[in-house]
Amino acid sequence: MEKAAFEGWLESVSASYLTLSDQQRNQSLDRLISLSGAVQLRHLSNGLETLLKRDFLRLLPLELAFYLLRWLDPDTLLTCCLVCKQWNKVISACTEVWQGVCQELGWRIDDAIQDPLHWKHIYLKARLRTRQLRGEKAFETSSLIGHSARVYALYYKDGLLCTGSDDLSAKLWDVRTGQCIYGIQTHTCATVKFDEQKLVTGSFDNTIACWEWSTGARIQQFRGHTGAVFSVDYNDELDTLVSGSADFSVKVWALSAGACLNTLTGHTEWVTKVLLQRCEVESMMHSPGDYILLSADKYEIKVWPIGREINCECLKTLSVSEDRSVCLQPRLQFDGRYIICSSDLGVYQWDFASFDILRVIKTHDFANLSLLSFGEVFALLFDHSYLYVMDLRTENITGRWPLPAYRKSKRGSSFLPGATSWLNGLDGQNDSGLVFATSMPDHSIHLVLWKENG
């Protein structure tokens, strides 16, 4: 057929085709397809792919593509990366998308790092770690053996664990290697705290002592309590040591001289915890930068100013029940902004500026569940059988780990959390080292550590 005649025929057929119903058009196409050969079918296939299978990631501006990708869940994103090289390239280049999915898993985001492949790698690591937590595969255990009597006091700092025992010794351990770095003769230890040069111990003999690690010599002794000393804290900058005792009192001491500067009264139960911490918020009672002393007994938390005046007044008393029907558990936390303490009813969080209760976290069986440490994203808790990781954004348990029959302690001195920076958000580096330590009936120390992330 000549070109002119063909064009005329094509115009006539096209005009007639437009007058047909959808069903008639479909029948016409079916007839044409049945009459077509391989060349025509290949041409039809190529044309339909262009019309119907439009690659929106290829066609859209990157800004719009990234916006759409943010609506996809992480598993779908990974599936989309397998579609083709172009899709993988576009999806892998979206920093905000990978930062977002990492944040959803409780990982800390450093906005200074804008490399999208870094965040995609971090997400894959985060997903693996999350699955390990849920499957009880994130941790591993080891033991420290060396004491010959029960271990009542534990303190952890920067990869080192100090243990104080009824065998009249204190030991400093490297958690990573399990090696004992120092072992010195002391009194019976109810509480310990250390730094690079010295060890401070509170004892059941009602005294406090300061020891030098390198020589084992006692360099200072603090006498004045009439009951066992259950908790100590100190600050070298202030040259101050504070102690809480079974005699219901809190004492403030000159760290270097050993002299008692003040005795704080008002507790009506054993003082099981004292904390000396710099305040980070302002209120009518304190300013940012002020040092604050917190002390806790079975029912109350008291807030004190740090001063040398005799008979200074308590700034505030906190409790969870006015009639003392609810007991506080011996686990107190203060970061300068919030006070955290657990009770038989749940975990309580107070705002330090206003002393208002900001949050109460309750579970089905909190009478048997104890708080170890509380962060911005996660909390670490435990009971008689398991160690638990709670996502504070949902208050759901996201992981657990079985515990042996450890030594129980009403004062909470025979167990402690390890490094806690990961509770403010995992970052791919802080999920390592010690998670939990507790003393055992056979006088060993049971350690729970992060397993190396595969």
What's the quick description here?
By secondary structure, the protein is an alpha+beta fold. Helices cover 22% and strands 35% of the residues.
Give the tally of β-strands.
28
Strand order of the largest sheet: 1-28-27-26
Average predicted local confidence, pLDDT:
88
Query: Strand share of the residues?
Result: 25-35%
The span between the termini is 71 Å
Question: Can you give a write-up of this model?
Answer:
With 454 residues, the protein is of the alpha+beta class. Helices cover 22% and strands 35% of the residues. It has helices at 3-18, 22-35, 38-52, 56-59, 62-69, 74-81, 85-92, 95-104, 116-134; strands at residues 139-144, 151-157, 160-165, 169-174, 179-185, 189-194, 198-203, 208-212, 218-222, 229-235, 240-245, 250-254, 260-264, 273-278, 291-296, 301-305, 316-318, 328-334, 338-343, 347-351, 357-361, 370-374, 378-382, 386-391, 396-402, 415-417, 434-439, 445-450. The strands form seven sheets. The chain has a four-stranded antiparallel β-sheet, with no helix packed on it. Strands 2-3-4-5 form a four-stranded antiparallel β-sheet, with no helix packed on it. It has a four-stranded antiparallel β-sheet with strand order 6-7-8-9, with no helix packed on it. The protein starts with a helix and ends with a strand. The model has no long low-confidence stretch (mean pLDDT 88).
